[in-house]
């Protein structure tokens, strides 16, 4: 199944209506997810026939961690892309984080955040404190002058937090022994059992029409049950079905989107997806007794976030000269790499999914500018003897 780079079922895991999170207007969970969905849309445009898995919330989370350190245009670009309010998104993000990870979810959602900083890197206290308060973000110091050792440590943390699903996120060559200052990491692990499980004896090899036009034999799970199903239409009039598969805790569902017409490529439907579209499906849902056949599958993907985020207007943080993280540290830093790895495993019992997202921050390789643009004094000195050969004052060069 891993090889079905052409397997194009599009599954979306959403979190439904917990008090206070889904209110009027997009919630903070939705605002962040919309940006993540747009990243996904960018990525699938360049990989139309591959399996792609991405955690929209993971993308929003890593930006949310950097946000308290950002200033000026760097900050504005992130706020605009996320549609966060200018002032104090942190209370909302804190509530979101609490709700997502609440013990009341019977399905397991584990979200962990950490910042690994270079020993001795002077981070602003308020930046560290805000991240700790809002996202229970751990802070650890590391020695990046040993890139392999530092990468191993970060990967071990990711491996622990994703319960072995993402064994490695960072390669040593992404770290610079002299300039890496901070690696921010978000990890999300989800484990949900289907509310209505599939019987393994009903899983049979059946044909699946791959996105490339070939037919593949894949293990198809099957069950006869009552499901919420709706028929929706894109603005261009293309019809698609939405099927909801709830997990046993009843707060999380997988939604499967399937174009109704076999000839409609998935790529015609994906651009139309947003959290508002997803909300609109809930109104169209009807409970119907059907025999549902869906493949058992495992898929994973690695996504470099710089190009998609830049296309969505987040550019300055990646620029050595424009990045403004003055509330993170007095030493100028910029994001040299942002990436996410995600994996999903769907079988008869339920779903396990994990994502790890990181932003690696580097100090400037060229020193900060010092501009002599005012009257100045010069001395010409013979150093071995200390002899001043000339001295001058320049008021107007
Ligand atoms: C990973 O988990 C193991 C076992 O709980 C623990 O000993 C280790 O310190 C953890 N590693 C990191 C980097 O947190
Ligand atoms: C269908 O959706 C409604 C409304 O969200 C929900 O109450 C019900 O439990 C769902 N039923 C199934 C079978 O998923």
- In CATH terms, the superfamily is Antithrombin, subunit I, domain 2
The biggest sheet, with number of strands, parallel, antiparallel or mixed sense and barrel status, is:
6 strands, antiparallel
How many DSSP H or I helices?
8
- What count of domains describes the coordinates? 1
Radius of gyration: 25 Å
Number of strands: 14
Please state the structural category.
Answer: alpha+beta
Examine the coordinates and then state which fold CATH places here, giving the name of the CATH topology: Antithrombin, Chain I, domain 2
Question: How much of the residues is beta strand, in percent?
Answer: 25-35%
CATH class: Alpha Beta
Describe the SSE topology:
Elements (H helix, E strand, L loop, with lengths): L9 E6 L12 H19 L9 H11 L5 H11 L7 H11 L7 E11 L6 H11 L2 E5 L4 H15 L18 E14 L10 E6 L5 E19 L5 E8 L5 E8 L15 H10 L1 E10 L1 E8 L1 H6 L21 E14 L3 E14 L12 E7 L4 E8 L3
Helix pairs in contact: 1-2, 4-5
The protein binds 2-acetamido-2-deoxy-beta-D-glucopyranose (2 copies).
Family: Belongs to the serpin family.
Keywords: Hydrolase, Protease, Protease inhibitor, Serine protease inhibitor, Signal
Protein name: Protease nexin 1
What would the keywords be for this entry?
single chain; serine-type endopeptidase inhibitor activity; binds 2-acetamido-2-deoxy-beta-D-glucopyranose; Antithrombin, Chain I, domain 2; six-stranded mixed β-sheet; disordered N terminus; serine protease inhibitor; 397 residues; protease; 8 helices; six-stranded antiparallel β-sheet; alpha+beta; hydrolase
């Amino acid at each position: 199944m891993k090889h079905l780079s052409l397997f194009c079922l599009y599954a979306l895991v959403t979190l439904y209506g917990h008090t206070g999170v889904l209110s009027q207007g997009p919630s903070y969970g939705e605002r962040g997810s919309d940006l993540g969905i747009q990243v996904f849309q960018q990525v699938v445009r360049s990989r139309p026939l591959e399996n792609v898995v991405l955690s929209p919330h993971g993308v929003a989370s890593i930006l949310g961690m950097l946000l308290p350190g950002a200033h000026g245009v760097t900050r504005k670009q992130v706020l605009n892309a996320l549609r966060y309010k200018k002032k104090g998104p942190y209370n909302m993000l804190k509530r979101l984080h609490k709700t997502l990870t609440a013990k009341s979810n019977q399905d397991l959602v584990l979200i962990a955040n950490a910042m690994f900083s270079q020993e001795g890197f002077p981070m602003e206290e308020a930046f560290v404190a805000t991240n700790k308060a809002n996202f229970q973000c751990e802070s650890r110091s590391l020695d990046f002058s040993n890139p392999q050792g530092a990468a191993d440590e970060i990967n071990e943390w990711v491996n622990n937090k994703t319960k072995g699903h993402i064994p490695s996120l960072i390669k040593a060559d992404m770290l610079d022994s002299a300039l890496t200052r901070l690696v921010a990491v978000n990890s999300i692990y989800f484990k949900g059992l289907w509310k209505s499980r599939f019987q393994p004896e009903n899983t049979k090899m059946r044909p699946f029409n791959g996105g490339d036009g070939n037919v593949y034999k894949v293990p198809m799970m099957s069950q006869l049950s009552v499901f919420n199903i709706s028929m929706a239409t894109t603005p261009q009039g293309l019809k698609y079905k939405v099927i909801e598969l709830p997990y046993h805790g009843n707060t999380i569902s997988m939604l499967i989107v399937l174009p109704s017409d076999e000839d409609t490529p998935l790529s015609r439907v994906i651009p139309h997806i947003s959290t508002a579209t997803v909300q609109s499906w809930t109104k169209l849902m009807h409970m119907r007794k059907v025999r549902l056949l869906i493949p058992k599958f495992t898929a994973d993907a690695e996504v470099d976030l710089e190009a998609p985020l830049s296309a969505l207007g987040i550019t300055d943080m990646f620029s050595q000269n424009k990045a403004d993280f003055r509330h993170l540290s007095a030493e100028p830093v910029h994001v040299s790499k942002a990436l996410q790895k995600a994996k999903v495993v769907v079988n008869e019992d339920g779903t396990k999914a994990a994502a790890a997202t990181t932003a690696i921050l580097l100090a400037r390789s060229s020193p900060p500018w010092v501009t002599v643009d005012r009257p100045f004094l010069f001395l010409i000195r013979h150093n071995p003897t200390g002899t001043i050969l000339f001295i001058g004052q320049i008021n107007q060069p």
